[in-house]
Design a protein that fits this description.
Largest sheet: 5 strands, mixed
Strand content: 15-25%
Strand order of the largest sheet: 3-2-1-5-8
CATH architecture of one domain: Sandwich
Helix content: 25-40%
CATH superfamily of one domain: Cupredoxins -  blue copper proteins
Order of helices and strands: HHHHEEEEEEEEEEHHH
Structural class: alpha+beta
Number of strands: 10
Shape: elongated
Radius of gyration: 39 Å
């Protein structure tokens, strides 16, 4: 047994140099020799060959990109209006009121130009003439002995009656204008406007209650078609031209004010309160009109602009569909055989209202007759959809 152990130890000592020579140097990895393809399992080899053949011969297949309903950018074929250089925004070197596009705006402009400005001008010139006359006529050099006249009955009657008559002249058209502003006709569309620090949110309860978040576009993303500097936004409030639009205005944080000068529209957005106003862009004046928050609301008050785009009814219907919304009467038109007795009435009402409602062209299933809405039109030039306040 002892001799067997000695023999094994001798063999190990003889083989030790060869084993040490075969070890890799410290800090190096042993070289790996790839196994031949024949050594691969049959399934792996076949799968690799099949994958190579498919990759080399198959035609690439485009995967459709699904855009969320409220992604911001309009659907293909729905372009946005570029701003009119003369209407809808402040004009360079202008000192007058912006050109008015709504009927109330034109009435208010008439009130300003025909009633108020002449009266103000006449009163100012009259008072200036009186001051100059008093300075010259009653100066100390011309009157070494001051007059002791206490009052003049005729003058007192005149300066009492004249202001009263002037106020009556102003009051009559002014009250008519106020009554017209706060007695709106029946609304064709309702939009809920919510002020936030510092952006606007627009909700369309009549069209599926979808929501838009409107932020000012960063200057490096703004194009001339988006609007003037500090007025271009990523999401415009889109409304149909020729329709009465009722605005429900409120706020989520502090007091804001929704104002579009070209519409003669201004309404405070107060937290916890719903204020109402309205406007109607004539059917022959589609376009984009700009405004701003008109109530000091914080550090970024100057960077929450408003852009309202008035479009033909057919284009409005296409835009609503692109946002995932629906037009009024869609349920009745889609399911005329519903068990509810109101469903046929809704469908019949929608059909009967077609000639007189400005939204009739946008009814479900109606042909899109607006030539500006087509499937081959170029994508919108506007940068809408960024939903980022560039100043933040």
């Amino acid at each position: 047994m002892k001799s067997l152990k000695l023999t094994l130890m001798g063999l190990m000592l003889a083989a030790a140099p060869a084993m040490l020579a075969a070890q890799p140097a410290p800090g190096t990895m042993p070289a790996l020799t790839p196994a031949p393809e024949s050594a691969l399992p049959a399934t792996a080899a076949s799968n690799a060959a099949a994958g190579t053949a498919v990759a080399s011969s198959a035609t690439p297949v485009e995967t459709p990109v699904v855009t969320p309903p409220n992604a911001g950018a309009a659907a293909p074929g729905i372009s946005h209006y570029a701003p009119d250089p003369e209407v809808g925004h402040p004009l360079d070197k202008a000192y007058k009121i912006q050109p008015q596009v709504t009927e109330i705006g034109q009435d208010a402009l008439w009130m300003h130009n025909v009633v108020l400005m002449p009266i103000i001008t006449i009163i100012s010139l009259f008072v200036l003439a009186l001051l100059l006359w008093v300075v010259v006529r009653f100066r100390a050099k011309a009157n070494p002995v001051p007059s002791r006249t206490a009052h003049n009955t005729t003058i007192e009657i005149i300066w009492t009656l004249a202001p009263v008559l002037l106020l009556l002249v102003i009051a009559v058209p002014s009250i008519k204008l106020l009554a017209k502003q706060y007695s709106p006709p029946k609304a064709d569309l309702t939009v809920k406007v919510i002020g936030n620090q510092w952006y606007w949110t627009y909700q369309y309860p009549d069209n599926g209650d979808f929501e838009l978040v409107s932020n000012m576009l960063a200057e490096d993303k703004r194009k001339p078609a988006d609007g003037p500097r500090l007025l271009a936004v990523d999401e415009r409030m889109v409304v149909p031209a020729g329709a009465v639009v009722k605005l429900i205005v409120t706020s989520n944080d502090v007091i804001h004010s929704f104002a579009v000068p070209a519409f003669w529209t201004k309404m405070d957005a107060v937290p916890g309160r719903l204020n109402e106003t309205w406007f109607k862009v004539p059917a022959d004046k589609p376009g984009v009109y700009y405004g701003q928050c008109s109530e000091l609301c914080g550090a970024r008050h100057a960077y929450m602009p408003i852009a309202v785009e008035a479009v033909p009814p057919a284009r409005f219907a296409a835009w609503v569909a692109s946002k995932g919304g629906t037009m009024p009467g869609a349920a009745g038109a889609a399911n005329p055989d519903a068990t509810s007795p109101a469903s046929p009435a809704v469908a019949a009402t929608g059909a009967a209202a077609a000639p007189e409602s400005p939204l009739a062209l946008g009814a479900p299933g109606a042909p899109v007759s607006d030539p500006t809405v087509n499937a081959t039109a170029a994508p919108p030039t506007s940068g809408q959809g960024a939903n980022q306040n560039s100043g933040q």
